[in-house]
Design brief:
- The structure holds two protein chains of two kinds.
- By secondary structure, chain A is mainly alpha-helical.
- Chain A has ten helices and no strands.
- Chain A has one domain: Up-down Bundle (Fumarate Reductase Cytochrome B subunit), CATH 1.20.950.
- Chain B contains 21 helices and eight strands.
- Helix content of chain B is 54%, strand content 10%.
- In chain B, the strands form two sheets. A four-stranded parallel beta sheet of chain B has the order 2-1-3-4, sandwiched between helices. A four-stranded parallel beta sheet of chain B has the order 6-5-7-8, sandwiched between helices.
- Classes of the chains: A mainly alpha, B alpha/beta.
- At the A-B interface, helix 2, helix 5, helix 6 and helix 10 of A face helix 2, helix 4, helix 6 and helix 8 of B.
- Bound molecules: protoporphyrin IX containing FE and iron/sulfur cluster (2 copies).
């Protein structure tokens, strides 16, 4: 039974998650496009951007590296390899940075005033992000140091991701027969959840930030 | 709560869900950066008085009725439906917000909590707990707009008396036509308030500058906007727009009233005339030499309080400072200042309510700022600000004098 579930998570749910992710963002943008504009000006003066984005900038850099890193798991991209490095980019630091950021945001919410203004969604998102990152880092570090015959390497992931992208999905036996299969499945399951929640949660600030800030300058 | 009432409230939520509101409902990360940027929270540290705390009450309702995630997972999004309890929370949130938008400047996404509280006030109008004083004042303003001809005669009589004051101040031979009304094709139509000072001082300045101007029959202040009733707010603003269009004036100049200026300047869309504040006009006269102000005539320390709607929300920062720095020898700046200046706590219609104790407490950051400058005279250019500064002065027993900018200009006019 678990085999079936893992199979579903690694293949069907991934497609579903990406469909919900892109479809959801598109849906939100279309709703905005058809909404009533504000007839006046919402500007504040002087017309400039607000406080430095601060800690969010770190999360953002880590995020870009994270996306690039995952791209390289699909196949080798020459433009990413301009600066020579091992796959996965950042040699584990991306994961660590991300963990520190999510933990910082999480622990912050346990104390006042964040405690009072937080809603369950805030905790849920951070916990999901944290868990995804922890397991993702484990997958990476396990491979890097060949811990306890970890045996899951970039080549295997490339085979799997590549097949997903080509819409001929297969799960290589190197992954499915590995004792660490459950971690791979868990990482992908959590990531799917994050992707699906994204357009329908406060994470839409990734997209709306630029639009709402623009209102302030008009 | 009755079903029909909930239905009505839901339709208001829907009608106010415009583009900016869509961003504001979805985007807040509850990062807390705005938390302590509200003067009300600074005075009374209570969640409902923080910007995000206020906004969350409204956001809950939007989540419950207008968002997919809120409908499917009310627990996770903390969504809540209409109930008497929520409406009470909303009342507390909305009627302690002055719409100063200081929080907006401090939010990484530029979320306009003032606008969100405007929607909250609209809901409270339908729910029936909007402050009666404001509703009555708004109704009176609407009534005046509908039957202006009945008001005209009486108003002209009042203006005749004010013309004599202007005549004395400027040593002119006759009071005739010093405050013209219904003058076609004037360069400026000035919109005042009910108080005589809001007409006399500007009239002195216009006459000293030999301006081709006319006085509006209406007051600039918009109690419909304060009360949270968009229909009345629009009607009240349209009275002025219609009058200006009928007289074919080039420019409408607003009295020292932040909200009056902001509504016409920023919220009514394109208008066929220019909208300025009296502050900008005085600066123009001073720069072009149309009026002469005594240099360094005031030797006491003076500071300027930026009305939120003129400064942060209107971009008028330099003009009042340049005027004051000309008249005053010891000008002192508050810290923080300009767009980060603390709201005095008197805006958004709060100044018209019976809530003096609340306003003294929430005026605390303003009091601290004033005391720190050591100034003896505090100048501002907004009716609400000046009266709230008076409340702060008496509430904390400050040894200061509060003045309108037009007042200090008229006192130091070189005629
Ligand atoms: C690219 C994807 C992005 C991701 C994955 C992301 C993720 C996050 C996460 C997880 C949080 C923590 C929320 C919490 O405290 O519970 C956060 C907060 C925040 N994000 Fe983003 N974000 C992204 C893009 C952006 C962008 C484009 C901006 C700004 C223009 C931005 C600005 C912020 C700010 C200001 C905070 C609050 C920081 C604080 O609490 O001090 N984010 N973001
Ligand atoms: S600063 Fe903006 S995003 Fe952060 S809690 Fe306040 S309103 Fe929300
Ligand atoms: S607009 Fe002003 S009064 Fe209202 S929440 Fe923001 S800072 Fe506070």
């Amino acid at each position: 039974m678990w085999d079936k579930i893992f199979h579903y998570v690694l293949i069907h749910m991934v497609y579903l998650a990406f469909a919900v992710f892109f479809g959801g963002i598109l849906f939100k943008l279309i709703i905005v496009l058809f909404s009533k504009k504000f007839k006046g000006s919402l500007a504040t003066y002087p017309r400039k951007l607000p406080r430095p984005i601060g800690i969010a900038a770190e999360a953002l850099i880590a995020m870009v590296l994270l996306v690039l890193g995952h791209l390289e798991l699909i196949k080798e991209f020459k433009f990413i390899q301009i600066i020579k490095h091992d796959v996965f980019l950042g040699a584990g630091f991306v994961g660590i940075t991300f963990m520190i950021c999510t933990l910082y945001f999480l622990f912050r919410r346990f104390k006042s005033p964040w405690r009072e203004i937080s809603v369950p969604e805030d905790f849920l998102l951070l916990i999901l992000l944290f868990l995804t990152t922890v397991i993702g880092s484990h997958l990476h570090i396990g491979e890097r140091y060949e811990m306890a015959q970890f045996g899951l390497n970039a080549e295997l992931y490339r085979e799997y991701f590549g097949s997903l992208v080509a819409f001929k999905p297969v799960i290589p036996e190197g992954i499915s027969l590995s004792p660490h299969y459950v971690l791979v499945a868990l990482h992908i399951f959590l990531a799917n959840l994050v992707l699906m929640m994204l357009p329908f949660s406060k994470m839409m600030h990734m997209v709306f930030a630029f639009l709402s800030l623009n209102l302030k300058r008009k | 709560m009755e079903k029909s009432q909930i239905k009505e409230l839901k339709s208001i939520l829907k009608s106010r869900y415009n583009r900016p509101m869509k961003y504001y409902i979805d985007t807040c990360t509850r990062c807390g950066l705005c938390y302590d940027t509200c003067h009300a929270y600074d005075g009374i540290p209570k969640k409902e008085f923080s910007p995000v705390g206020r906004a969350e009450v409204l956001r809950k309702l939007y989540k419950r009725y207008r968002s997919l995630s809120g409908m499917l997972f009310p627990y996770f999004t903390d969504a809540a439906g209409f109930s008497d309890k929520v409406m009470d929370q909303l009342h507390e949130a909305a009627w302690s917000c002055t719409g100063c938008r200081r929080c907006m400047v401090n939010c990484p996404f530029g979320i306009d909590t003032g606008m969100m509280m405007g929607v909250a006030k609209h809901l409270l109008v339908a729910y029936g707990t909007a402050p009666e004083e404001l509703v009555m004042l708004a109704d009176a303003a609407v009534e005046k707009g509908k039957s202006i001809d009945e008001f005209k005669e009486g108003y002209r009589g009042v203006i005749k008396d004010l013309e004599k004051t202007v005549q004395q101040k400027l040593n002119l031979p006759s009071p005739e036509n010093l405050i013209p009304m219904e003058k076609m094709n004037a360069d400026i139509m000035y919109v005042g308030l009910a108080g005589a000072h809001s007409i006399v001082n500007p009239a002195i300045i216009f006459n000293a500058a030999k301006e081709n101007w006319t006085l509006s029959y209406f007051e600039g202040v918009n109690f419909g906007f304060f009360a949270g009733d968009p229909e009345k707010a629009n009607f009240i603003a349209q009275r002025i727009i219609k009058e200006a269009v009928a007289l074919n004036v080039k420019e409408v100049v607003m009295v020292e009233c932040g909200t009056a200026f902001r509504i016409l300047h920023s919220l009514m869309g394109e208008l066929p005339f220019k909208v300025s504040s009296i502050v900008e006009v005085i600066y123009r006269y001073m720069e072009s030499g149309k009026i002469k102000l005594k240099k360094n005539a005031v030797t006491e320390a003076v500071t300027y309080h930026d009305p939120c709607q003129l400064g942060r929300n209107g971009g008028i920062f330099e003009e009042p400072r340049d005027i004051l720095k000309h008249i005053v020898s010891d000008y002192r700046e508050m810290t923080p200042t300009r767009e980060h200046n603390w709201c005095c706590g008197g805006g958004g219609g709060l100044g018209a309510l019976d809530n003096e104790e609340f306003r003294i407490k929430t005026g605390k950051p303003k009091k601290d700022q004033i005391v720190k400058t050591g100034a003896k005279i505090v100048v501002s250019a907004c009716e609400n600000c000046v009266s709230q500064l008076q409340v702060i002065k008496s509430g904390y027993g400050l040894d200061i004098e509060v003045k309108y900018l037009t007042e200090i200009v008229c006192e130091n006019l070189d005629v």
